[in-house]
Specification:
homodimer; alpha/beta; Rossmann fold; six-stranded parallel β-sheet; four-stranded parallel β-sheet; elongated; DNA-binding
Chain lengths: ~350, ~350
DNA sequence: TATATTTGCTAAAACGCTTGATCAACACGA
DNA sequence: TCGTGTTGATCAAGCGTTTTAGCAAATATA
């Protein structure tokens, strides 16, 4: 890396961007001077205005100057004049806590990018003060809008300042109806799909280990379970619904109760629970899926895909949630204030349920 | 929510921000007019310039106007005049793929925030084109600098355009020495710490299941393992080093070979491997930690903390990596271009290694 | 040849803010 | 009465763009 003199008096400069090693950035004006035109012309060339009349020759001269100088437009100045920024804010309460938030970010990012927006993210870990600061920051950057997301599906009270911007709730919703646009996973459909995996496996007596912790997921998945049963003409038996804390320990601890129910198929509230249940089942000398077919929920990759046997489950559509949130914000998707838009949770079938060869 | 008329002729307006429901944002000028002062004065009040002389009364008037109108400064305009933006860019190759990247973001966020910077993130999923676009975007927003991070520790070639900005490599490094500042986990120390957990457990014959995939982690952890052994006066036995693909299946598959080695303690390249090994061990009727003490690496929460028994492991300091990256970028931490700064990997002891009561 | 039209480009205002230079008003000591 | 300070506030330039109105030259039309 030989530093290159910029004296006009030196030998012919090669057609290579002269790396200005982090001095003042090159401005439009400098490009204009280099090309011997006005800044207006340069601007027109850059933005390829179709109704602007620029001689091909001039256009080339400008382009060369741009390349030569390694010009980068100043986005700040741009948005200042245009009045509207190209930012979308994303405030999340748990990027760190779970892999889930990462997927939301990812989906939002991709979709935002697609429409020429950059993501301004803020992780609040649930801290309300941080949250307020984060929103203030985004407001000051005049974001196009804000995605307010939570790491698990839940009701939330919309922070006051959020209302100063256009916003969409992602993976959460406001309890007071009509207060906000929102996009959430379709828990009922998910619960139904999960149960149907078992149904397709030929099972008619299916247990459901629900969570003890109140949440939309808890109610929704249960409802989905009931719906699936009903659709299959199987009467709902409350005896077959257990409850446990929704993690590995909970699943493990539920083993004994489950075995009392004399079932050969179980739908677990989530993958972590299923993981614990695997251990419990194994300790009882039971094999999966032969002695017990198991279905989880969440499709937590690290777990579900690598359990032995790999776990059939239902995917929480975090990526889609993020993407849909952006589309809704941008007004690309229809959305009402009255009820959250539900995103479907696709089933992911692996080996923890044996395929059923119908007699 | 009654929309509030702003006519000057109406009754005394309550001291509450009149929410401008997303019309044009309020500007400095409007505040100035409302307070009956010049924009300069408002600016001075807002930025609490200490050497500016403003009558207490005026100051109040301005503050009231600000509150009244719900004024939010325009960050774009601000940075435009100041010349330096308050952004730090973070390009990551795998926010989605792993929970790890999330931690890097989190750490970077917190540290950046602490110094008044906002994070501009871009997820590239390893796509070089996306990466170039992302960097260009950041350059246009005149970021203070860019953190270039990878989801696993590895050498990387620095994208050309990255050099246009101030940058720091996070969780990766440039093979050509002196090319870039970088911050990475201290694999050797980590490997050593992991081995020491076993040593403290009273074990002298310790196996190491290394990864088959070449990586700094593979070499570093092995070296750390050797160092720990040497420090304990135990000769290194190549027979005790196995290799497997670094995931659950790999760990499971390594069980047989491991048992041939006649050891009662094993250090696994990562937690996922340990998870698989747990299964293998259990199938052989072996109990952890009594028949086999196991230590992992990575401290992947979902797994390590919830295995049965919970897994002793070593933490990959992703949060710290992100934070240190920001500090290095800002010149708060010393940093040389010649070798990456190493961040320590702290041991996390759980129940997969029995405590040793020294005789 | 005179006039209308098209082409190629520029001047200058505006976007919302910061800041150094100024300035008016007033108080003080000589 | 006059300098000299001090206080409280304003003026105006400038940050890097975009964009509209307009101008001069070239070309087409009659």
């Amino acid at each position: 890396m030989i530093s290159q003199e910029k004296d006009s008096g030196n030998a012919a400069t090669p057609d290579v961007p002269v790396r200005k090693s982090r001095a003042q950035p090159v401005t439009l004006r400098e490009v204009a001077e280099a090309a011997g035109v006005s800044t207006a012309t340069v601007s027109l060339v850059i933005n390829k205005k179709k109704n602007a009349r620029i001689a091909e020759q001039t256009r080339q001269r400008v382009k060369d100057a741009i390349r030569q100088l390694g010009y980068r437009p100043n986005a700040m100045a741009k948005t200042l004049v245009s009045g509207t920024s190209r930012f979308i804010g994303l405030v999340a309460d748990g990027v760190a806590t779970t892999p889930f938030a990462g997927q939301i970010i990812h989906g939002a990012q991709d979709e935002a990018w697609k429409h020429g927006y950059a993501l301004l993210i803020a992780n609040t870990e649930g801290n309300r003060d941080l949250e307020t600061d984060a929103i203030a920051m985004m407001l000051e950057y005049k974001v196009r809008g804000i995605l307010y997301s939570t790491w698990f599906h839940r009701p939330t009270v919309v922070p006051e300042t959020l209302r100063e911007a256009d916003f969409v709730l992602v993976n959460c919703f406001s309890p007071e109806p009509g207060a906000a646009r929102a996009v959430v996973p379709d828990e009922e459909q998910g619960g139904k799909s999960a149960t149907e995996i078992l149904l397709r496996g030929g099972h008619r007596r299916i247990a459901f280990i629900n969570a003890t912790t109140p949440a939309p997921a808890r109610d929704g998945r249960l409802q989905g379970y009931k719906d699936a049963l009903e659709a299959a003409g199987i009467p709902f038996d409350p005896e077959l619904v257990l409850e446990a804390y929704p993690d590995q320990e909970g699943g493990y601890g539920a083993t004994e109760e489950l075995l009392k129910r004399n079932v050969a198929a179980v739908f677990c509230y989530n993958d972590r629970m299923a993981m614990g249940l695997y251990d419990g089942l194994r300790e009882n000398g039971l094999s999966i899926p032969d002695d017990m077919a198991v279905v989880g929920f969440d499709n937590q990759e690290v777990i579900a895909a690598h359990l032995r046997p790999p776990l059939s489950t239902v995917s929480l559509p975090h990526y889609e949630l993020g993407a849909a949130g952006v589309r809704m914000l941008l007004g690309l998707d229809e959305a009402s204030n009255d009820s959250a838009v539900k995103i479907m949770c696709p089933a992911v079938e692996r080996a923890s349920v044996a395929v059923h060869s119908p007699a």
